[in-house]
Design goal:
Rossmann fold; 3 domains; 12 strands; binds iron/sulfur cluster
Length: 343
Amino acid sequence: MSQNFLHKIEKHLPAPVRRTGEQPDSAKLSAEIKKLLKEKNAALIAHYYTDSDVQRLAEESGGFIGDSLEMARFGAESPAQTLVVAGVKFMGETAKILSPQKTVLMPDLKAECSLDLGCEPAEFKKFIEANPGRTVVVYANTSAEVKAMADWVVTSSMAVDLIKHLTSRGEKIIWAPDRYLGDYIARQSGGDVLLWDACCVVHAEFDATRISELQERYPEAEVLVHPEAKADVIALANVVGSTSQLLKAAQQSSAQKFIVATETGIFYKMQQACPGKKFIAAGTEPYGGKVDCEANCPWMKMNGLENLLEALKTGNNQINLAADIIEKAMLPLTRMLEFRKKN
Ligand code: SF4
């Protein structure tokens, strides 16, 4: 764990928000938002890690719930003129890059991500310059500026496939920003992968000892792990995959119990997709002894019905990006979408 990285993100960490169940006025707020979405020809696109009332509203209003790749795809293909992105800032930026003619709104522009915060464009530029001749592959969880410097953008669902493909062409890789995911990809692909030093503080909290204790208690349970977790946690997994891949695994498995090592927002969809099955939150320990999220992303939880309604009413919290950044970042993003279609 790098002190430098912790120092970078510490000042941005919002107070943890741990909502439990429905907000008292959620029916009224949801009705108002649905009406405005229609009037403004807008679609609500929510990430799996947002609160259940936000996800439910996305479903009920004809919008979308997904992981970052699916959100990007839906936004680009949707006929809606306004995209309301309930997630974190890089997701709003990705929607804007792929649909520059559309208005992209977010409930709170301060909803960041420790990976994006841990990879400042100026520092990353120096890193690329110090390591010439390598193909630059960045995770979707980066700013538009960082994407604009990359050859490829990937999500966790396709990262291993892409690095295998590039390695088979003899390419050496720079990978940023998640070093745990990068380490996993390097081990899976056998590629030459140079890692940037940042991580998702939510997934890095999952703790192998705590998970082993749960396995002793629930020996029949399968362990589902997101690859942003540390290697010793990944080693305990029955299935390693992106949020969508873990959801699919839970649906397809004959197991009735699962220990889940990803952000807790996914439990809404997992319970909905597998009504009879039991999902147990994997154990965590504070990251670096300091960051204690208990698998709740503090930035994802900044998306609520109140600020969503406010953004729709006022048109505030728009994502705006410079034309040259959009143009440069569009290329590696389009490559990502094309690669996914073919593979
Ligand atoms: S869960 Fe991790 S990767 Fe996802 S938005 Fe939060 S900090 Fe970023």
